[in-house]
Every structure is written in structure tokens, then in C-alpha cells.
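$ run holo --ligand "1,3-dihydroxyacetonephosphate" --emit C-alpha cells
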Amino acid sequence: MRKQIAAANWKMNCTYQQGEDLLDNILGANIALADHRQVVFAVPFPYLIMANSEVADEPNYFIAAQNCYNKKSGAYTGEVSAEMLHSIGIKYCVLGHSERREYFQESNKMLAEKIDICLEYGITPIFCCGEPLSIREAGTQNGYVETQLKESLFHLADSVISKIVIAYEPIWAIGTGKTASSDQAQEMHAHLRSVLAKQYGPLLANNISILYGGSVKANNAVELFARPDVDGGLVGGASLNAEEFIAIIKALK
Ligand SMILES: O=C(CO)COP(=O)(O)O
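-- output --
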């Protein structure tokens, strides 16, 4: 079975102490994860080392960075490299979140570079894609998201593509409380998988986890995650509440 993943994206939230308490509360629930299930916490940079040591003895729990730079090293004041993340044992990195694309002008091409560097350092990218409301209203979301995939991922060899996790996050559903219906999510996830299958063949496409993100909550996770092409979620707001996120972890297939 494909990996089913509950990923928390804390964004720019929590003090160090709050973050530590949140992790303690979630890990304290002692949810044992079957081998096809994983939990990932994407925490702010200053908390990576603390968070990584919290999950060190917890099988199938991992820590992610929320971003890294598209250059390997050098005079880029304030940036964080994939090599730095690797050097502290980080295994995942969220890339191309719509907030990065919007506020920091991250392009598909720049994201392709970030993906290559992460893979070089053995870091699994959680590649985010998703359309804005205007595109959804025009009905052209399939082509829009397909282009994001093509321009950032399709240079990857067959041997590497299965190392990517994809997160489909329709922008109109992020932080708005307006979740895509499970039908809308399934439809897009199936489309993305067919686009991947066209490029890489059905076998590889079937192995790639595609997470849904956008107002995932305890009360809609079961229905969303039950859909055949929805392999878990990338969760913002609800991941900041231990009880909510625990319920979301338990909703994994
Ligand atoms: O952007 C998201 C996760 O990366 C989704 O955020 P919300 O769950 O707060 O809508």
C-alpha cells in the first residue's frame, strides 16, 4: 500500500515552548503507526533540532522543514540550505507551498531546483501544488496543476520520482474553512495520478502519495482520507491543536 501520511504544517506559529508542548501532547497519545502510515511535523527552522529529538524514538514519526533555498551554499544571508537540514538529520522538506509562491515569488523553475538539491541530500520533498479560486471558477484547474507538476517534477528520472510526496492544496481552501469536497479532492488526485502515469507509467504513479491540504479538520478527515487517491493530508490550522491532530492521524487509511 502507498504511504498514508498525516503532515502538520505549523507555518509561522508557536513559540518554542508551545511547540514542544504540542509535540509532547501528540506523541503522548502513543498512536502506534502501521508501517504504511507516517506522521510528519513541518516546524519552523529554530525548532527542527528539538522536534527531531522528540520523534527520534518514535517509528514512522518524522520532522520536516517548511522550505529551503535553491542554491547549495554561499552568500545568501538568511537562507537555509538542504545540506544544513541534512546535517541535522531532517528527512522531509515542504516545497512550493502556495504561501511561498505568493509572498516569496517562488516559481515552478525555482522549485525544480530546490527539489533536485533536496533529493541530492536524501531529503524527501513534499511538493505542494494547487490552483487559486479564479482558476477553479474558470474550470481550468486540471491544466493549471498539471503545469505545476510538469515544470517542477518531470525532469526527474523514473528512479527518483517515487521519492516525492505531492500535496494538492487548492488555495481557496487554505485557512478559509472551505474544504474541497471529498469528490473534488478525489477528482483532482485521480487527475494528478493519471498525469504522473502518462509520464512515468502506472506502476510508479501508483506508488506516489498524494496528500490533500486545505481546511482539513478532525470532522472531515475520515471522509477525505477514505477516498482512493487521497493518501492523507497536509494540515495547517488543525495541526496546532493536539486533540484535532490526533484525530486526523487516526483518520489515516
Ligand atoms: O496550507 C495548509 C497546509 O499546508 C492548509 O492550511 P489549513 O489547514 O489551515 O487550511
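-- notes --
Residues 182 and 223 are 7 Å apart (CA to CA).
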